[in-house]
Amino acid sequence: MANAICIKCGSAKRCWTSKCPECEFDPCTNTEDEAKSYILSTERFDDGNDPAERMGLPDFEEHELDMIGKQIREGKDFEFNAADVECVVSTFEIIKNMTWKDSLIMFLTVLWWFVPIYILIAIFWAIGSMKSCA
Asked: pTM for the full model?
């Protein structure tokens, strides 16, 4: 069983970003190849917050990846959905083009919600402490 399939030779590999152990193909040298490698992997489904599901990408099981790998090894091309590949490419481009300022803004956008919550917790804790003293 494989976590990812090499898009060039169909060999199994542990990670979609890793170089193929058989043909030495590195998918991370080209964004489109990187996107195709991402599509032909199972790693992206590990957490409960899967961006691939929101993008509408196919959810391949390990045995399906094994069959796709066999198909590629036999010289038959795997037909990627062009819209799926373009969706992943555009997402990767956004991520790669993010600056540290963009990351900081995203972090602060999420963080500011926690400040009022902590203030409310502190107020309720203080009120509860004052009632227990009385």
From this structure: 0.67
For residues 98 and 83, what is the distance between their CA atoms, to the nearest angstrom?
23
- DSSP code at position 27: G
Q: In angstroms, how far is the first alpha carbon of the chain from the final one?
A: 65
Q: Output the DSSP codes for the chain.
A: --SEE-TTT--EES-TTSPPTTT---GGGSHHHHHHHHHTBSGGGSSSS-HHHHHT-----HHHHHHHHHHHHTTPPP---HHHHHHHHHHHHHHHT--HHHHHHHHHHHHTTHHHHHHHHHHHHHHHHHHHH-
> 12: which DSSP letter?
E
C-alpha to C-alpha distance for 123 and 119, rounded to whole angstroms: 6
Q: Given pLDDT bands bounded at 50, 70 and 90, which one contains residue 122?
A: confident
Question: pLDDT of 42-67, one tens digit each?
Answer: 876 445 555 555 566 777 788 888 89
Cα 70 from Cα 76, distance rounded (Å): 9
* Structure tokens that stand for 119 in this block: 């203030």
Measured CA to CA, the distance from residue 74 to residue 53 in angstroms comes to 30
